[in-house]
Amino acid sequence: MPLAPVFVEKATGDQTAPALEEQHGGLALDPRLTEYVSWVGNRMLPYSLRGSEPHVYKVLQSDKIINAFALGNGNVYVTRGLLHMLDEEAELAEVLGHENAHFRHRH
Known about the structure:
This protein is of the alpha+beta class.
């Protein structure tokens, strides 16, 4: 089955993001946490074939849901629940690199 055009993936991601963020309790209120996650995620971009495209790293407020995912518009999400389970920065880098790969491969 052929992939949807990139512009369709981006539009779908833009359209889906607000409801998805609301469903997970909204975005985290701590800007330092989001800055840190973005810093780690951006350090992974040189290893992605779509690393030159915009990626926006966001932390979702949900403590109960343990997950991370990416949308076709370049938004990469991680929940606070998942962050609480991580022991070190390398684990966060692994999670974000995995999500970058989903974006890169258009999953």
